[in-house]
Amino acid sequence: MKSTRFAFHRRTRAFTLVEMLLVITIISLLAALTMGGYTYAMRSSKRRLTTGTFEAIKLALERYNTDFGEYPQPAGSNQMVQFPPGVATYDTSGAACLYQALTGDGFDQIKGVTSSSSSSAGGGAGASSDGKVEGAAEISNKKFVDIPQTIFTRKGSTYILIDGFGHPFQYLKAALPTAGVGANTTPTPTTINSTYDLWSYSEDEQNTTKQSISSMTDPTLSVKWIKNW
Length: 229
Fold this sequence. Notes:
Elements: H1 17-68, E1 80-83, E2 88-91, H2 93-103, H3 135-140, E3 152-155, E4 158-161, E5 170-173, E6 178-179, E7 184-185, E8 196-200, H4 214-217, E9 226-227
Antiparallel strand pairs: 1-2, 3-4, 5-8, 6-7, 8-9
């Protein structure tokens, strides 16, 4: 009996276009989920750092008020700088005032302070800041127990306090009543609190030219902000 042998040739099966598209879609989704989780984690970390610094600033401001009988007032206003260049614009006047008032490094960004003597609010060895706290005058005016390098930076010739996002903290001192004719008159409020407004725009890069008082008429402006009102 003659047997016939049949040869079977196994053919390698290739991916179809639909299968390739499905694989690419799955990979893209996994990448998006991974990046989304990373972005969320980074944003949360920056907000925690901002909140911690925020609370430290408030405590230091109370020490300043106890020592000098008032809260510091920025010497200037609307000192607008872009962070980073070409992206969002921020006012650095409050952050510059906070830096000097709470570190003791210089005093030219604090309104009304003209002396470098140790008895002067924010006084130091010189009017401008040099990024160091040294000498009896500066050390005696230091309100921060510890000053980590991560909470301040230099913009141009000015040192400023920054939040976890690398943006300047915003600070406004409340306006005091002014004497009128025969009675005291209150100026138009520029702050929400009767002492000072302190806030960080946090991850908000759309409303960085808005002031705290603006959120009274439009509360949606400050939804992302970290603030003291």
